[in-house]
């Protein structure tokens, strides 16, 4: 696919059952899309929910965008030409935004690439054919059951005025907690001792040979149930931005993690499963000094944090709980855990009513060993692995 002001460049796979998959070529943009396709005589259409971004982008979209492509099949060996539409949210009709060329091989697209895109959208598909294809796509979409969004699923667990912080108590059972702790300690050589904590990384390997991204490593089979559960809750999307990275952090009493932002290495959503000791996890106003692409070796976090500020919101993390934050909380608020052996409940703690045990403001509790599983989507920066 070429054209449409460079919006998409890659490969579309259509199978006989009506499913469609788009994979970017990884040169200018990185990402993928999933959807459906239909055919009527010598005309066809595809609808794709596309999640992609520029290979070096710092600003990452938080959700996919829906597109429709309509084309007619010609008799010659050259590319088939069609129209490209963006589908706005709500009841607004699809809007023509450009044209595209599609062919069986890249070589067949070279003439279209050299010709370049036309200035401004001009329809290539006849209006009658367009309306029939659009109606067929609408009918296919209407047959699917309505999808409950991640925001709707998580709304009962929202706990803070800071946008998009959610707390789910007892997300796993005690026997599952014991199992995950045993897995984390199964090979003690996997732990990397830092000044502030111990850590393991699953799902990311060495830098790719192209020099633009990290090699993705498959998650251990023991982590797949976690990924499946997060995909079912629509916290991550199993096709477009799956949970593919797990960082295990181990904290002894008196250890913590300095306030920091994760930055554009990851999709802007985090799910943290807590095991062992409770602790207080805080969100701080972003100072504007963060440089998330640099590592601070003294404090073992992305660089540029600022000290001495009061938390804007705090969350008391009980064992077996799941903390999910995204959007504003991810982009504009640093997060961290104080390096103390005893926590005190303050008025900033915003989830007291959601806790399994009753805590009072001013109450203190001792920490013991805590292990957390921080689950994210590591963003590809190249298309070397598809």
UniProtKB/TrEMBL annotation:
UniProtKB keywords: Dioxygenase, Iron, Metal-binding, Nucleus, Oxidoreductase
Keyword match Isomerase: no
InterPro entries: AlkB-like, AlkB-like_sf, ALKBH6, Oxoglu/Fe-dep_dioxygenase_dom
Subcellular location: Nucleus
Superkingdom to which the source organism belongs: Eukaryota
GO molecular function terms listed in the Swiss-Prot or TrEMBL record: dioxygenase activity; metal ion binding
Domain Fe2OG dioxygenase: 242-379
Main location: nucleus
One Pfam entry name: 2OG-FeII_Oxy_2
Gene Ontology CC: nucleus
Protein family membership: Belongs to the alkB family.
Protein name: Fe2OG dioxygenase domain-containing protein
């Amino acid at each position: 696919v070429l054209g449409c002001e460079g919006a998409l460049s890659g490969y579309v796979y259509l199978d006989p059952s009506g499913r469609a998959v788009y994979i970017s070529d990884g040169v200018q943009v990185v990402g993928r899309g999933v959807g459906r396709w239909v055919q009527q005589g010598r005309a066809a259409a595809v609808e794709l929910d596309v999640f992609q971004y520029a290979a070096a982008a710092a600003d990452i979209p938080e959700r996919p965008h829906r597109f429709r492509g309509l084309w007619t099949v010609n008799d010659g060996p050259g590319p088939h030409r069609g129209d490209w539409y963006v589908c706005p949210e709500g009841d607004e009709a699809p809007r023509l935004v450009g044209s595209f060329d599609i062919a069986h091989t890249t070589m067949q697209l070279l003439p279209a690439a050299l010709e370049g895109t036309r200035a401004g959208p001009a329809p290539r598909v006849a209006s009658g054919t367009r309306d029939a294809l659009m109606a067929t796509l609408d009918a296919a979409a209407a047959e699917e059951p309505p999808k409950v969004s991640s925001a709707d699923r998580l709304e009962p667990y929202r706990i803070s005025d800071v946008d998009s912080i959610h707390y789910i108590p007892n997300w796993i059972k005690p026997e599952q907690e014991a199992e995950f702790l045993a897995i984390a300690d199964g090979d003690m050589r996997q732990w990397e001792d830092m000044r502030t904590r111990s850590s393991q990384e699953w799902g990311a390997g060495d830098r790719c040979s192209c020099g633009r991204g990290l090699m993705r490593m498959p998650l251990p089979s023991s982590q797949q149930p976690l990924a499946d559960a997060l995909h079912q809750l629509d916290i991550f999307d199993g096709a477009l931005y799956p949970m593919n990275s797990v960082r295990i952090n181990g904290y002894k009493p008196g250890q913590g993690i300095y306030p920091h932002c994760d930055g554009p290495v990851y999709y802007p959503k985090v799910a943290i499963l807590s095991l062992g000791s409770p602790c207080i996890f805080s969100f701080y106003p972003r100072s504007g000094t963060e440089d998330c692409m640099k590592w601070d070796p003294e404090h073992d976090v992305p660089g540029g944090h600022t000290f001495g500020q009061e938390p804007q919101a705090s969350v008391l993390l009980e064992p077996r709980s799941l903390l999910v934050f995204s959007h504003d909380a991810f982009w504009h608020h640093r997060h961290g855990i104080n390096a103390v052996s005893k926590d005190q409940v303050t008025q900033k703690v915003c989830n007291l009513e959601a806790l399994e045990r009753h805590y009072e403001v001013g109450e203190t509790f001792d920490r013991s060993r805590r292990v957390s599983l921080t689950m994210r989507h590591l963003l590809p920066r190249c298309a070397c692995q598809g």
